[in-house]
Amino acid sequence: MFSQREMPSASSMFSAYASMAASMMLLRSMANELIPQPIRGYILNAFHYLVKPRSQSLTLVIEESNGIARNHVYDAAEAYLSTRVSPDNERLKICKSPKEKKLTIRLEKGEKLLDLYDGVSLRWRFICAESDKNAPSENTSISSNVSVRSEKRYFELSFHKKHKQMVLESYLPFVLDKAKEMKDDERVLKMHTLNTSYCYGGVKWDSINLEHPSTFETLAMDSEQKEAIMEDLNRFVKRREFYKRVGRAWKRGYLLYGPPGTGKSSLIAAMANYLKFDIYDLQLANIVRDSDLRKLLLATANRSILVIEDIDCSVDLPERRHVDHHHHHGRKQTDVQLTLSGLLNFIDGLWSSCGDERIIIFTTNHKERLDPALLRPGRMDMHIHMSYCSFQAFKILASNYLDISSDHHHHLFPEIEGLIEDTQITPAHVAEELMKSEDADVALQGFVKLLKRKKMEGDVCENDDPDNKAEPATKQSKKRKVACKQKKTVAAAGTQRRTRRLSRGSSL
Ligand SMILES: Nc1ncnc2c1ncn2[C@@H]1O[C@H](COP(=O)(O)OP(=O)(O)OP(=O)(O)O)[C@@H](O)[C@H]1O
Ligand SMILES: [Mg+2]
């Protein structure tokens, strides 16, 4: 009896277990059948989420591209992180294309990096995952040969959750800015000039690398004026939002005026080097039709400087054509469409309505001859007078050419200071004189002599300088050019007006 009681109990337990197991299996298979896969995954995740300890860190995923377009943040992070590699990094990628000047450093996959910003630690990780999504398994050998293997590259940026706002609003913009700065530094500036070899197809921009060495440091100018210009440029590039808010085109115009050889072209090059903007040198003399001008202006890029040199000589276009083509007297007026007002209309209207961060610079030797339309307030934002060499400017040249630092007082400086202030001598002329000898004393003595002579001559003319013979050919040619321009200046009445630019080519 006892044993009989035991026996069924054991068997009943077994059968109970068996039936339970069976029903569990049934339940699971029912669940599998009834609840579709995604929802099951979801329930599982939710379960894990509830059970798992809450993480305090937030991870941002920065993928290489968002489908079609590249992800700016990714590129910026890549560039920025290359400046943050630490001794902890074990594998880095190095590359350099033939055109680049420097090596490029990149993180190798899996590398981690710790950055500190405002006392907050930010953990970066570079991940390279091979995506098998569209790699058909049966012909992997082919696909690897053809290298269609697609890789998904992304950065993970992790930090404490409480810094989310700071990272999004301050750290990432900082990374973007840094990367932009780096790109600017590496950028090779271009100078675009007109190519007129297209007989019927009009004109086109041609570009060469701008390797003009002029910078604000080497520019001989009074320091207040120099600082005012630099400040103006800084303000301009920083004010995207301002221009947008007040509904103005993000443009700035400068008018540089002053006698030949005072550094107008050098200042333009210095501005380009400072801002890392390309230069477009628009030689109006080479443009015949309005439509060409329109095409050319539209073909200029953002972050650039459009330069029109000697504007006083270039604007009287109908007259110029008259002079240049005597046999074309019978030409119809409609041929001659390019006028100052036409140009200004373009600049105010068309050119202003497209593109951003543009600078336009006009230069002239004779501000007084300019059409009042050009001087109207608001047209050119800043009028910059480039004038004869002051003592302060001279000291910059002395430091550039003779390596005399400006706080070192050369024994000839007081005499020069006395003389230079009442002599009209251009920085170009001073530079030329200082180049005559590598020996500072000799060069400065020569310069003092020149100043005295000029003072005696009463600033009349630098053309009849007897020292001309002693100069090397290149210097002499520059001098001739200056001299020739000055003669023209004297004689520049009425029909004599024509573009010097024609004969001089590019000025930079
Ligand atoms: N302010 C300056 N600072 C440093 N160098 C200068 C300065 N002005 C002139 N020079 C020297 O003289 C040369 C000629 O100057 P630049 O071509 O800039 O003069 P410019 O005012 O443009 O003359 P132009 O009216 O003939 O075009 C320059 O290459 C430079 O070496
Ligand atoms: Mg010039």
From TrEMBL:
This is AAA+ ATPase domain-containing protein. SUPFAM superfamilies: P-loop containing nucleoside triphosphate hydrolases (SSF52540). GO terms for biological process: response to stress. It comes from Arachis hypogaea (Peanut). InterPro entries: AAA+_ATPase, AAA_N_dom, At3g28540-like_C, ATPase_AAA_core, ATPase_AAA_CS, Mitochondrial_chaperone_BCS1, P-loop_NTPase. It catalyses: ATP + H2O = ADP + phosphate + H(+). Its cofactor is Mg(2+). Belongs to the AAA ATPase family. BCS1 subfamily. Residues 250-390 form the AAA+ ATPase domain. Residues 458-508 are annotated as: Disordered. Residues 476-488, 497-508 have a biased composition (Basic residues).
